[in-house]
Amino acid sequence: MEGRGRGRARGRARGGQQGGPGAPQAPRPGPQQSQPPQQQAPGPQQPWSRPPMPQQGLSQQQQWVRPPMQAPPTSSAGRGSRLGGGDASDVVPPQMTAGAVSGQAEGADPQARGNRGGVRGRGGAFRSEIIRTKPSNMQSKQGTSGSSIQLTANYFALLQAGKWGLNQYQVDFNPPVDLTRDRKKLLRDALQDVGINGYLFDGTNMYTPQRLHPDPLDKFVEHNEEKIRVTVRLVGDVAWGDRHYIQLFNIIIRKCLTFMKFQLVGRDYYDPNNKIPVHEHKLELWPGFFTSIRQHENNILMACDVTFKVMRQDNCYDLLLGCQSSNPQREFQSQIIGSIVMASYSNKTYRVDDVDFKTTPQHSFKMKDGSECTYMDYYAKRYSIRIQVKNQPLLVSRSKPREIRAGMSETIYLVPELCQLTGLTDRQRENFHLMKALADHTRIGPPQRIQKLKEFSDRLNRSPEAIQELKRWDLKFSQDLVKFQGRVLPPEAIIGGGDRKYTGGPQADWTKDLRSMLMFEAASLSKLAVICPGKFRQPCNDFIQCLQRAARGMQWDVGQPRIFDIGDDRAQTYLEMIEQIIAKANPTMIMCIVPNNSADRYSAIKKKCCVDRGIPSQVILARNLTSKGVMSIATKVVVQLNCKVGGSPWTVGIPLSNIMIVGYDVCRDTVNKKKSFAGMVASLNKQITRYFNFTSEHEHEEELSDNFASFLVIACHKFKEINGRLVSLYNIFTFSRGCAMVG
């Protein structure tokens, strides 16, 4: 099944216009989305008093050939209904009244943003170039190795595309209008009486299946007591197969999801009516679906996959009440800043950037008409919500530049009482029982996943509104998942010491074989120093015996490790002991036993060993010392120890020579979310067992390509230094998050 990569960071309010009042530059509440008013919460509790106890309670697919263009339907023009939120519901089919659709709307294919190509002059259209993955000189790209197997993919084929074409129009405003939101409104007003019944507008270009008469169209529209000249001029026909068709298809299918009673939360659609409660951990799982329509050579396919949203049953004010330290404000800031919250009255998500302890719901802000309104009065009038706690601080969410350009306020103020916590904290992720409880619902095998996708297809084809919407656009999707022939390759031969070979079997697990095999290259580990808190001394002794037993099976000697006791598990205590050991014992490697996944302590140990002292280190969680599969853990630790002191556990046969394998990944700083780190490795020998590594810190995306190029040059020089010549072939791999389907 296809996993989904996460390009953009989650957490901002998604959609178009802001429902909150006030001038764009003024802080204001979060926007409205079409939802019923929130139910009244229990009576208020003051901050930092004792918190209340929780209540339990396709076999053959048609090629995408452009159909003949038909005359646009004729019907009276008018302003299309807007269902709120700026999502897929903004799309209006040709048979309906007109409405504007943002080119950046939810559901637009990420690759569909960018160039303006795909059209020719007024004479007609050409077909966009389709990427072919089969070289022109090959009859077939199917392999013959291994055995054939019938596969099912998480795709539904588009069997029927609309018999209409798109025209591209350029829209100009004089004097210029900066905000995309205002541009949409001006264009909508300008097209009220000209017979355009459905269009797509990205702020600069309009796409519609109809021809505009007259061409060009000039209209004067009043805006903020000023006459704005709106000029709409035909650029040409959009080629059948252009990205804008795909973009439109994506928006249409997302509109169908709203008809199917899914709710938009962040970027994806979820089903709160089928939520899965996890009462013992005060969590809920909202099941949902991710969809993305793209062109795959001659076919258009809709990728569909199951996704889940973790919703916490407590709100941000509950978190505030739980902060009972000597400095509760700082404690609350440390826990809430950087997290993603959902406004319960709109289902929109926001990233919390700060907490304003000087502003409360009793404070006022400016409405669009210039009048003053308190947050309490605003929520009472707009959502029929009565805020219980008047003196609670407000959460601050800062909009991104592109969101500000679209008309969103620079700063949005949120009431903690009305914001639901989403996702998991680091402490929750470390809770084995919690993660297992979630995994019981989210880790579904192929048969169950196929069943879920079939249920999605059935639900789509049972919804009268969704069926009617697809008919209006003359679209039809297959009810069955795509099926095709694949191949199971024979297991790769793993080469160990003494040129002995073995395989990982169907499960790609060779841990048991490894215990009795020589490692490919065994390095010397004569002095292993182990730092351990006194309370873990006995489990540590037992684990070292397991290490020695596993190493003997591989005919590798780890010597007699020496244990150094420490009185507590503070980071500074570990650092002081590391200094003492290096000064007196001159160890080959240092192993640290730690009680939990403290990021600060782990970073301090690694910095001291790797940066300050240049000595290999191994950090092990204390709970792994007594784990049920302790021998399996010990075997894997032995492999890591050998690698860290210069050895290689195994290799595979590489038929090519003079090649370099490059691996690359990027992750965000867990503390400073604005900072990212890129890590790269490059192989240096034929066996692909020796690597050169490089890390870089960056705050701007454009630094990524610069750092990548610089690293590759350095790696090439290192390769030449070792092998006496430069690289002939590069294989570059990038890595994405496989856990992104649970938010």
From TrEMBL:
Q: Which SMART domains does the protein's record reference?
A: PAZ, Piwi
Tagged with keyword Cytoplasm: yes
Tell me the ranges covered by the PAZ domain, including all copies: 315-423
Which coarse location class applies to the principal site listed for this UniProt protein? cytoplasm
GO function terms (MF aspect): RNA binding
Annotated GO biological processes are: piRNA processing
> GO cellular component annotations, sorted alphabetically?
cytoplasm
Region (Disordered) residue ranges read 1-123
The record's keywords, sorted A to Z, are: Cytoplasm, Developmental protein, RNA-binding, RNA-mediated gene silencing
Q: Where is the composition biased (Basic residues)?
A: 1-13
Q: Where is the Piwi domain?
A: 589-706
What is the top-level taxon of the source organism?
Answer: Eukaryota
UniProt lists compositionally biased (Low complexity) regions at 31-47
Location(s), subcellular: Cytoplasm
Return the PANTHER family for the record: EUKARYOTIC TRANSLATION INITIATION FACTOR 2C
What family is this?
A: Belongs to the argonaute family. Piwi subfamily.
What protein name does the entry list? Uncharacterized protein
Annotated organism of origin = Acanthoscelides obtectus
